[in-house]
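In this section we walk through a basic example: taking a raw amino acid sequence and producing a predicted 3D structure, encoded as discrete structure tokens. The instruction is simple. Fold the sequence below.
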Amino acid sequence: MARFAAVRVVRLVFVLIAITIVSFAFMKVIPGDPVAIRLGEHASPVAAAALRASLGLDKPWYVQLGIYMAHAARGDLGNSLVDNESVAGKLAQYFPATVELALGAMIVAIAFGIPLGIIAAVKFRSLADAFTMSLALLGVSIPVFWLGWMLVYLLSVVPSHYGLNLFPISGRISLQYTVTPITHLIVLDALLEGNWQAAADALWHLVLPALTLGTIPLAIIAKITRSGMLDVLRSDYIRTARAKGLSERTVLLRHALRNALVPILTVVGLQTGLLLGGAVLTEHIFAWPGVGRLAFDAIGNRDMPLVNGVILLFATVFVVVNTGVDLLYAAVNPRIRYT
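The resulting token sequence is shown next.
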């Protein structure tokens, strides 16, 4: 296990180096001048040259890359070109909101996707199976931006015409509540404080964004669960367990589901990594102050240090989450061992 973890750490370092180089080169070929964005098009040549020199943009690209990577190795991701704030500080400020949204979406996906997949497998080729898989196909096919706007319109805008305030359309919590940041996950912080009203309000704000973001993972998890359960339910040991007189619930949950968990964990890990990478469209629709919106604004402003910092954060989260999933394989399946 230790050797496996060490290999993954080394692989993570090489992945981050490669991604840094590629993203840096990509930002260099994108049209636009960050100095002009910061000073405006009518800035004097002297002011523009001075700012370019202070930012190191007057040096060759490979020198800029070397300087950036040397600072990044020390944890210094530089400052934003737009507001001169620390990139690491901005990521720390915005990332908890994305974590909270992604966790909410994955809870929705797992809580509904796995049961639906089990039902579809148990009721194979029945009306329930056809209905469940049709819903899964619909969930994968619906664009996130369309679903988000429809949920906002049907569950927020339309009810408001009749005096009903069903769901908020933006933000993480109502203005009348103040929560002391501990973990920076508002729902959890409110619970730790014992502020149940604030926790309920934060959950209320989380419902629509989590449903929007969790629809595609839910559909994928349901399909993978159905496929894995169908393979396991045809196995000899399942027939033996039933012949021993075990209850159907015990057979399904303790024997069948556990042996079908490896592909499910793989999908959960991949989807969690993708969601933590920033749900740009969902965060934009619901004005959610997460990394996705931060990345969108940074790309529009050609804020290269911030863009590179966001990309490094995305890559690190994705690799770490999937490494954790690999380690979980051994916990759920005794036949898997890492040496």
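Looking at the output, two observations stand out. The chain has two domains: 2-73, 89-332. The domain at 89-332 is CATH 1.10.3720.10 (MetI-like fold). In the next section we compare this with other chains.
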